[in-house]
Amino acid sequence: MKYAFIAGALCQSGDRFLRAGYKAETLSLETVLDEMGKRHEAGGVEIHYRGADLDLGGLKDRLFQTGLLPAAVNTWTYGDRKWRYGSLSAADDRIRRAAVEHCKACIDAARFLGAGCVGLWLGQDGHDYVFQIDYRAQWVALRQSLRELCDYAPDLCLALEPKAREPRNHSLVDCVQTVLLLRMEVERENLGVALDAGHVICAGGAIGPAIELAMRYGCLYDVHMNDNLGTWDDDMIVGSVRLNEMLEALYLLRRYDYRGYLTVDIFPYREDPFDAVCESIRALRTYESIIERLGMETIDALVARANVPDTLAALRRAAFHTR
Predict the structure, then answer these.
(1) Mean pLDDT per 10-residue run, the chain (323 residues)?
(2) pTM of the entire structure?
(3) Spatial CA neighbour of 207 closest among 269, 249, 236, 253
(4) Domains with residue ranges and CATH for the chain
(5) I want to staple 224 with a disulfide (CB 3.0 to 4.6 A). Which of 5, 93, 156, 265 is the partner?
């Protein structure tokens, strides 16, 4: 597997109770890249494109110096007040057009940096109350925006990241099935899925079926890994909560020949951000080694037999070197 991290979350992590964040210092993007480059745990990085103030030339040089590859460039159509009623699906034509143009600039940045994927998390597109939205008009607007962006970027993968809720009470792009429906209606093969493990879990879903579904249609373009207690998008260190579900995810990604990055997407509010990301990557590598220890054919046979105690025993022995 190829491992990456999201740079922005390492700079500072605030929440709604302490928006300024819990760290004494907000780190620059350059500091984050330099430190992660020194640690030699991740091979790639996802960058958020907030606007033209980002020095793309300097960033490209910094990536080269640190040895980090641009795994994806992500849009920022949620972190500004102007998107509060939506971005690519906004009812206001001017706001929607501004969102499309911002995403096109993000696509240009991805091309310049050499990234093959553009991430679209539409956190502000959805609704909070009943009788608030013309649902059909919202869907049609999103479909038109996505078709325009796909046509603008035929050489890139555009990865929609579903999430059931937050910051809107009901997200428009809420699950993998919704992304696949959009892909069908947009009729563009470069539109696909950025699957976030925590988003699936906190929506009451299971990671395994979500991976299989996206891979069945050949459009799993990015995977975000984090751990989760199940009631919220906790974005915790990988390895802190869910062992067997992560093992199954690694097994399925290998079984279906996923070629993209596994990106650590966590919010280390109080922890050292570099230690937290590096420990997440080490946990994922350990999970990979457990799968290798068992062997794909052995796991295939266990799944086929569907004897749950036998399967759990095999996983326990491989994970903990016990009998």
Answers:
(1) 95 90 94 98 97 94 98 95 97 98 98 98 98 98 98 98 98 98 98 98 97 98 97 96 97 98 97 97 98 98 98 97 89
(2) 0.97
(3) 249
(4) 2-290 (3.20.20.150)
(5) 265
